[in-house]
Amino acid sequence: NELYAIYAQLLPQCDAPRQLELLRRRAEVAEQNLALPGRALEDVIQQLDRTAEDSSGRAALVAEVDRLALASGRFSRGLSIHFRGLPHADADELRALLEHVAGLLEGPMERPGRAFDAWLHVLLLHPDEEGPREAAWRLAEKLSAEPLPKRVPTLFDEDDEAEVEVVELEDLVEAAPPS
Question: How far apart are CA 61 and CA 49, in angstroms?
């Protein structure tokens, strides 16, 4: 834990290449010594944010984000990194990104409903291709075979709702005497 803190203190004082190295080491310490893959994930994301878009090391960092997101259970955080590239991606890059995300969602993340949505987006881009269509049908069959939930989730469960006190405006504002 002390080594992690030392790296954190040194980070603002270093130049950019040294910062990347410290973040890499800090991620290793967080995962291996402290058994905190979520903290390591954040350090790798910081590395990714400080790495140039055209850098050859970005792909390895994105793969590390995937691995740490799965290890820590922070799926949404890991997926958010992939979704950053959506606005600037051309059709082929978008397809590859959505297929990768669909694979993560269906496989290790075990979210077949969200994977189905990702495949539907691929189908919107490439409606005549068999691969995305087959994947969507396969997931549709899997999802339709699952039993319906006993209770439909609601936006707010009773325990989540806060007590709300109704206050009249007159109770909040005192009339000021005319001057």
Answer: 10
Question: In terms of Cα–Cα distance, which of 156, 85, 18, 129 is closest to 100?
Answer: 85
Other CB atoms closer than 10 Å to residue 22's CB: what's the count?
21
Q: Which helix H or strand E contains 47, and what residues bound it?
A: helix 37-49
CA angle 129–134–140, rounded 5-degree value: 130
Largest CA distance in the chain: 79
pLDDT digits (tens, 9 = 90+) for 87-130: 888 888 888 889 999 999 999 888 888 899 999 999 988 889 89
> How much is the pTM?
0.71
Whether pLDDT at 52 is above 60: yes
- What is d(CA 136, CA 116) in angstroms, rounded to the nearest whole number? 6
Report helix, strand or coil for 34.
Answer: coil
**pLDDT above 70 for 168:** no
> What is the Cα Rg of the chain in Å?
24
